[in-house]
Design goal:
Blueprint lengths: L1 H4 L4 H11 L15 H12 L22 E9 L12 E9 L6 H13 L5 H6 L3 E8 L7 E9 L5 H16 L5 H18 L3 H13 L4 H4 L1 H7 L2 H11 L5 E10 L7 H18 L11
Helix pairs in contact: 4-11, 6-11, 6-12
């Protein structure tokens, strides 16, 4: 809100700077052809005289364990008399699952699941809903302690049923919970993530950003071990991750939908009940696949 920016004073900015921009709240990462001793002396000369500050502890509010599907809808009302009413805003679906923190061992497995489901031209979800929606999947963890979020976002094409798309996405996650990813698909996903990881670390800035981020959330050593951990993941790990997090009762679904004036709303409770019934029925009919026997 621009009005709030006008309320910020010079004193506010100085107070924020003194509170947080302190050596005891700083990570300095050096990449490249540097002389460690002389560089360290320079850093000390710049920051060594600055006194430590009392860093306010971030309050992390622990959310209660989710035990039921959550659904909500935000309608954007369109006036049909408006000349521009045909230019409807996107009808967007977002399905989120509570997952792990950034520092948790499950984080890398979730990165792999994210790629298998939603990245590449042959991804599981994209291939199923390619004719109805544009898909984006993110696995996000904001810090080392707080719960992460696995987010599936679909922007629907015109005249596509949101209910059918939601149910299809949830069905694909149920399939993931009861099947083992083929070795070829697993290896392709790992290789693609490796390429992205290496590409991001080709520049000094990219490598410094990566190392600093991991150091902030625990230890930079985890950045150096990332690819080894990734390639050690198995079919069984993906199977366990899917069953650990992708319960329909651990999901929160939000629709942002265009709506013309006088158009009736769907009943939210009825909608939620129908989604649960269809996905649960579908899941019960699935057979758990026996993991493949891997021989050396």
């Amino acid at each position: 809100d621009p009005a709030l920016l006008k309320l910020i004073t010079r004193e506010n900015l100085l107070d924020y700077y003194e509170k947080y921009f302190s050596p005891n709240n700083m990570i300095i990462t050096l990449i490249g052809d540097v002389q460690p001793r002389s560089t360290l002396r320079k850093i000390i000369s710049l920051f060594g005289s600055k006194s430590k500050s009392e860093i306010p502890q971030q309050e992390i509010i622990q959310e209660n364990v989710q035990t039921e599907l959550r659904y909500d809808r935000e309608n954007i009302v369109i006036d049909s008399k408006d000349k521009d009413s045909t230019a409807l805003p996107n009808h967007r679906i977002q399905i989120g699952y509570h997952t792990s923190s950034f520092s948790d061992k499950d984080k890398i497995a979730l990165d792999l699941v994210k790629f298998i489901l939603g990245s590449g031209s042959h991804s599981k979800l994209k291939s199923e809903i390619k004719d109805t929606a544009l898909l984006t999947i993110n696995s996000e963890s904001e810090n080392a302690q707080d719960t992460g979020l696995f987010l599936v976002r679909a922007d629907l094409k015109p005249f596509v049923s949101s209910q059918n798309t939601i149910i299809e996405i949830l069905k694909q996650l149920e399939i993931l919970k009861k099947s083992y990813i083929p070795t070829s698909d697993l290896n392709k996903a790992k290789a693609a993530i490796e390429n992205i990881f290496i590409l991001e670390t080709q520049s000094p800035t990219g490598l410094a950003t990566l190392i600093s981020r991991f150091e902030r959330y625990g230890s930079y050593q985890k950045a150096l071990q990332y690819l080894d951990t990734l390639f050690a993941l198995t079919h069984e790990d993906i199977y366990k991750i899917a069953n650990k997090y992708f319960s329909i009762y651990n999901s929160s679904i939000v629709e942002i939908t265009p709506q013309h004036k006088n158009e009736k709303n769907n009943d939210k409770q009825l909608f939620t009940k129908k989604v649960i019934e269809q996905v649960t029925s579908f899941s019960h009919k699935l057979k758990v696949e026996i993991p493949p026997v891997i021989t050396e």
